[in-house]
Amino acid sequence: LPSSVTRINERTFYGCSSLCDIALPDGVTSIGESAFENCSGLTEITLPSSLIVFENNAFSGCRRLMEITLPDKVTSIGDSAFAFCDSLTEIIIPDSVTNIGDSVFAGCINLTEIMIPDSVSSIGVGVFSYCSSLMEITLPDSITSIGGSAFYDCENLTEIMIPDSVMSIGDSAFFYCSSLTEITIPDGITRIGEEAFFCCSSLTRITVPNSVTSIGDSAFFYCSSLTEITLPDSITSIGVWAFSGCSSLKEITLPDSITSVDGSAFFGCSSLREITLPDSVTSIGDSAFSGCSSLTEITLPNGVTSIWAGAFDSCNNLTKINIPDSVTIIGVSAFSGCSSLTEITIPDGVTSIWESTFENCSNLTKINLPDSVTSIGDGAFLGCSNLTEMTIKDGVTSIGREAFEGCSSLRELTLPASVSWIREDAFALCSDMTIYYSGNALDSYINDNSSDWSAQNIIWVKQ
Prior knowledge:
Helix content is 3%, strand content 22%. It is mostly beta strands and 463 residues long. The chain has a five-stranded parallel sheet with strand order 1-3-5-7-9, with no helix packed on it.
């Protein structure tokens, strides 16, 4: 190139796949957007000392470029400037650089080491995403923010020191950093973003500082080696799926500032044996503790008003749970599959037993329904094979499909006169059973299904 050239314009050499090497003359100060993008045969380039700016995608897709030295005058590296430079193993960023754009080194799968100078104040969105060979990186004290997906899928990253200067960590910042074993979050952080440590399956320990007020959705999803985490009193919210799949987590204490356990927050925490819920909690979200198969006992605080769908589904070692009088809603499948639960008392404020609420609670022997209950949903007690005693109070008007199917130990049941509607198979597989009823509302139902009652040896007695 002639010495008179001061700028390489946008897309000048775009897609020149046979271009192998090039020397830019002194005097060039900027390389335009996509100037050398997809020059897939380029292995070497000499950059002049006059160069100041790399614009977006400048060398993106230069898959054979193995090494590059940035001149000392460079101040800005544009978005995706070296993205998908598959052969790039090392790059030296001079102290003059103050801005590193988004996704600058995204997909540089052979990049193993990089030094960020003190002049840089932020790590942009996706800067090192898919840098699968990057094992270690040191961030300078000048860094104040780590952008979303900054280290996304850096699967061999084992260690990173986050300086105290960092004030924010973006969503998915360390998503699928599956070799990362330990991390300390600095005191200035106020929020841990959504999916921040998603699938960091080697992470065993994390320290959350007092400055953090919220943990985003799926923040620690499937951190399957995480055994210990301490949550400070400053936290006011824990997002859905926040600790889902943390199968090595054995115990956790929620701070007094938490008012709800959101949906699936601890879903699949199969080693969780103990959890302390503060008095401030008023709601247990959908599937909040579903699949916590090591949980044997839990005490719900007196302020809880709702236990939502699947909250304790498949907690098959749960033997005891107290439901406080403040609870008015117990959702669909809330205790489904709690096969070790032997007895439960439902408080007076509950008006409906929803679908599959106690399905397959096979060791449940006794349950009392309060006067407030008006309906029993489909499959509510399906498969409760050891249920021997059941009290249904006056006020219940309907019994859903398969509500008591497979309750093979229930020999006697009294239905109040208020029951006017029973759906099909409500008492399927309930053999040798006597059902007492009163009033005329069920006469036609009983007569229409007389062959079923005879086959199951179910006797209806009108009082």
